[in-house]
Fold:
Amino acid sequence: MCNLYRMTAKEAEAAKLFGAAFTPGANYGAEVWPGYPGLVAVGGELRAMSWGFPRHAFSKKTGKPLKASPVNNARDDKLRVYPIWRDSFRERRCLIPMTQWCEPEGEDRRNTRTWYSLPETEVFAVAGIWRPTDEWGDAYAMVMVDGCEQMSDLHDRMPTILRGEDWTRWTQGTPEEAFALLRTWDGPLTVDRTDEPWFKAKAATGKPASANLLL
Structure:
């Protein structure tokens, strides 16, 4: 799963890579957490959206609706089944540029950050879907597939990394053509195991410490 990733490349460089227009000064962080804005390439533009589709629940005590929470990751085997993802997969697919994604390693509440990236590649694209929401404006979710062997010790799911020649087919192809691209990455990964605490960093930056959902 992925609840944290980085996009540290300059906007202009990313826009050139994706052949997209962009407006300087987009509101997003270099480290992206669920419920916060990240960059998305869609419709010939590179723009900020909120990471995660809103999920609504009700209090078991009062029965009243709770504040919406972000569901930021979509399983590939649920895309065509779950209503929360189905229409967006058919009609609104996007590319999520990133430089690294992160998984927690170690004991719960004492996790450290382990980062994954592509060797000799600063920015790569991950499969995403998006939709307009009443709560947060346009929002996106990351599509997850079975994890590769290099990260199997930490998690059994990973983002769907798309090769450059498949970007247009993901965003503009038929649902059947797009679904065929949802494959586990078969290339090498660069793995960076750090001593940086997972939860301490969240508390320091005001980011939510709880895990987000994968549906």
Q: What stands out?
A: The chain is about 15% helix and 40% strand. The mean pLDDT is 90. The CA atoms of residues 126 and 160 lie 5 Å apart. The first strand starts at residue 5 and ends at 6.
